[in-house]
């Protein structure tokens, strides 16, 4: 995944604005996982 952190932040803001009720916890885990993978790639 080659998205920049700014793009991820914009994506997360959109999700927070339009999130279906009750799905935020799931979305939060997914976005945390994506961010962790992106950070690991930057370290390599």
Uncertain stretches: none
Gyration radius from CA atoms, angstroms: 11 Å
Q: Main sheet, how many strands, which sense, barrel?
A: none
Strand content: under 5%
How many DSSP helices? Answer: 2
The separation of the N and C termini measures 14 Å
The figure for the number of domains is 1
Shape: flat
Overall pLDDT = 77
Compact overview of the structure:
The chain is an all-alpha fold. The chain has two helices and no strands.
Care to describe what's here?
The structure is a single chain. This protein is mainly alpha-helical and 44 residues long. It has one domain (5-43). Helices cover 77% and strands 0% of the residues. The chain is built from two helices and no strands. It is flat, with a radius of gyration of 11 Å. The relative contact order is 0.18.
Question: Could you name the key traits of this structure?
Answer:
44 residues; mainly alpha
Element layout with pairings:
Elements: H1 5-18, H2 24-43
Helix pairs in contact: 1-2
